[in-house]
Amino acid sequence: MRLFGHPAHSGVFVFCPKWKERPLSSYDRERRVRVNRQIRISPVRVVTAEGEQLGVLSIEDALAQAAERGLDLVEVAPTARPPVVKIMDYGKYKFEEAKAARAAKKKQHVIHLKEVKYRPGIDDHDFDFKTRHAREFLGEGNKVKVTMMFRGRQMAHPELGRAVLDRVSSELADVAKVEQEAKLDGRNMIMVLAPK
């Protein structure tokens, strides 16, 4: 048993038991594949690696068929009645599955929401610099949240901020479309642009 404390919280300790193996989540339970002796239901429908049907056999006969071929017995359809098992090389099957998952992950593109902040009285150089960054974000396929920040008495003239946001949307009209129109949210006016 170990106790951890923090100097800022004098007298407060948290009990941390030694790490135990985490229980399987529902996702892990769904993805779990039974192999060889883990398959307990008998009889089972047996299919070879080539797709040939061997029929409905007892689990012992199916294991004997797999051992005869030097392969594993893998449960492929546990919910079917009787369950379907396939005689295959389980290591190769896992490798191919992991390879396919990696390829699918490589192809997917996650869209991020990038933010660019402006002020109502922004100078031309600063405006161009920030707008160029927004253009780069849109070019990468990300959405851009354009935030107009008001301070003090600037809140009395939101039309000045809206004019800057309109200027941003017109500058980026060739690469972006307005996904969310400019709206006031507290001291900020927010507009969201999405790549075309």
Task: Explain how this protein is built.
It is a single chain. The chain has five helices and ten strands. It is α+β, with helices and mostly antiparallel strands and about 200 residues long. It has two domains: about 30-95, Ubiquitin-like (UB roll) (Roll), CATH 3.10.20; about 115-195, 2-Layer Sandwich (Translation Initiation Factor IF3), CATH 3.30.110. Strand 3 (about 45) and strand 4 form a beta hairpin. The longest helix is centred in the middle third of the chain and has 18 residues, at about 90-105. It is rod-shaped and about 85 Å long.
Q: Which descriptors would you attach to this protein?
A:
5 helices, 4-stranded mixed beta sheet, 10 strands, alpha+beta, Ubiquitin-like (UB roll), rod-shaped, single chain, disordered N terminus, 196 residues, 30% strand, Translation Initiation Factor IF3
| CATH superfamily descriptor of the largest domain | Translation initiation factor 3 (IF-3), C-terminal domain
Structural class: alpha+beta
Number of strands: 10
| Rg for CA atoms | 30 Å
Short précis:
This protein has about 200 residues and is an alpha+beta fold.
Please outline the helices and strands:
Blueprint: E1 2-5, E2 13-16, H1 26-31, E3 44-47, E4 53-57, H2 59-69, E5 72-77, E6 84-88, H3 90-107, E7 113-118, H4 124-139, E8 143-149, H5 158-171, E9 176-185, E10 188-195
Parallel strand pairs: 3-6, 7-8
Antiparallel strand pairs: 1-2, 3-4, 5-6, 8-10, 9-10
